[in-house]
Amino acid sequence: MGLPLLLRVLPLIALRSSASGDTTAAIGTFADVNTECKTCPHSLCPNILAYEQGESANVTCWTRGTRIIDTTLWLRSTSDCYVTEYDLNDNITDYTSALPYCGPDSEDEVLTLEDATLKYKTECRICPSISCDTVTFLKEETDVELTCWTPDGQVIIDDPYWMRTTNNCYVAQKNLYSKPDITNLDPCGPIPYLEIEKHFNENGTSDIDKRDAAPEPEVFAPSYLINATVGEDYALCRSCAKETCRVKRRYMFDQEVWLQCLVNTNGTWWSETTDFCYVKNSDFWQSPEGDYYRNPLCEYFEEPGTGPGDGDD
Ligand SMILES: *[C@@H]1O[C@H](CO)[C@@H](O)[C@H](O)[C@H]1NC(C)=O
Ligand SMILES: *[C@@H]1O[C@H](CO)[C@@H](O)[C@H](O)[C@H]1NC(C)=O
Ligand SMILES: *[C@@H]1O[C@H](CO)[C@@H](O)[C@H](O)[C@H]1NC(C)=O
Ligand SMILES: *[C@@H]1O[C@H](CO)[C@@H](O)[C@H](O)[C@H]1NC(C)=O
Ligand SMILES: *[C@@H]1O[C@H](CO)[C@@H](O)[C@H](O)[C@H]1NC(C)=O
């Protein structure tokens, strides 16, 4: 993993005094990749800590939880949270003989859940920022189940809140019909920068903890709502991304319009707005196809052959 040599020392066995006065062996280890230390040993549990690659941790007992690739083993750290063995230094081969079992209660999965529906096309990301990989592309009207919230995501228009879904990825609160009642949901805790390359969970056992594979195209092009301002006397918003399509709306000069995604029709760029109609990008002061980081194509959200502009004119 290209870790500094200094980190490649033998795991040290430390002695830690427990509350009852006897001593518990703790094994010193470190995170192989950025990872999360959770309230329970399951991928969907909220985080207590975020470990950076190479960060050290002392673990005191083992338990069983979500299968990550090839292991169901999770370790409890001295910070009273659980981290998957898969993300720890793999030089320690036998945690189960070196450490005690944490006990049957430690295997419980305790989650808060709340239903929500997406108002707009939304990418569900592995962490709550537009620089994070997209796990799945979700269309407007998709029902999702939320498990936790974070106030520290990337600001979308004016809202930094993101929610983790039971597909183990994050959607921006701005993309939901309404703000969920977060008093009924756990905070997600600190979230490290994660990458699908290092945190896919192929062959995981439990569906609920598994991230769905991203559909085509394989190029991850994140989406988010962006605002643009009409730079012409008015801008027509059409039922599809062609001059011949029916006019659904008319936006005024200097009006701020929120955009979901891009369509290229014969070399001309259009944007789908949050009114679900299409404006030519040349009608805006900004250039939505060029000025914004990783603004996605609308077709990424469609089943092949049902993309915008395939009818409705
Ligand atoms: C793994 O452990 C062995 C001895 O148990 C040691 O020689 C080796 O350097 C260790 N490698 C890493 C990457 O820690
Ligand atoms: C792990 O335990 C060692 C020895 O007690 C201590 O020096 C170190 O700070 C601990 N590391 C963490 C991350 O708790
Ligand atoms: C998942 O299972 C398939 C089929 O058994 C296997 O080919 C693949 O290598 C496995 N993936 C991982 C990451 O272990
Ligand atoms: C978009 O909204 C943000 C936050 O309200 C604002 O700072 C920014 O100037 C707006 N950009 C445009 C192009 O309207
Ligand atoms: C694209 O351009 C070609 C050639 O100029 C034309 O035949 C075709 O009708 C155009 N398609 C659309 C959707 O405008």
Automatic annotation (TrEMBL):
The keyword Signal applies. The keyword Signal applies. Keywords: Signal. Residues 1-21 form the signal peptide. This is Sushi domain-containing protein.
